[in-house]
Design brief:
Elements (H helix, E strand, L loop, with lengths): L6 E3 L5 E3 L3 H23 L2 H17 L10 H24 L16 H11 L3 H12 L4 H8 L3 H33 L1
Helix pairs in contact: 1-2, 1-3, 2-3, 4-7, 5-7, 6-7
Pfam families: Sigma70_r2, Sigma70_r4_2
GO molecular function, one term: DNA binding
Family: Belongs to the sigma-70 factor family. ECF subfamily.
Amino acid sequence: MAVPGRVSVAAGDARVREMDADEFDALYARSFRRLVAQIYAMCGNFAEAQDCVQEAFVRAWDRRRVLDREQCPEAWVRTVAYRLAVSRWRRAQRALRPPDRSQLPRPVPEPDASRVELMRALDQLPADQRRAIVLFHLCDVSIRDIAVETGAPVGTVKARLSRGRAALAGLLAVSDEGSVDQERADG
C-alpha cells in the first residue's frame, strides 16, 4: 500500500502523487454515478454504460499507483469507459452485418465417381510415380522443375511419368471395364 502523499516517478520521469486504496475508494464513491450518467448520455444504453464504467474502474484500480490524483483521474476513467462503449458498439454493429462472402468457407463439392476411381488408381502407384504425375498433371509443374523439387534427373522424371501414365491407364481401364460389366449384369 502506498503512503498517502508519497511522490513517485512514473513512466516518462513525471512526478506523480500515488493514489492509495482509500483515495481510490473515494474516487469511485464520488464519481461512479456521475460517470455512468455521462457515458449513458454518450452511448444511449444504461446497462452498457454501467458495465463500461465498472470495467474502466477495474482498469483504473490496476493503474492506481500511476494515476495522478491531481490530474483528474475521473477524466481518465471516463475516457476508458467511453472507448469501451464505442468498441462494444462497433463489435455489435459488425455482428449485425451480413457476413462478407469472401470470408465464408466455400462448400467442398462431393467427389464424383471418376475422381474416386482416379484417387484409388493413384494409391496403387509407387510413390515416385504418383508424385511425378500429380506435380505434372495436377500442379502444372514443368518436368525440369519436378526434377529440381524431387532431386531426380530429368530423364528419371520422364520415365516415372511414362510408367505412371501406363499404369494408370491399365488401372482405370480395369475399373471402367468392371463398371461396364456391372452395368451389363444389372441390365
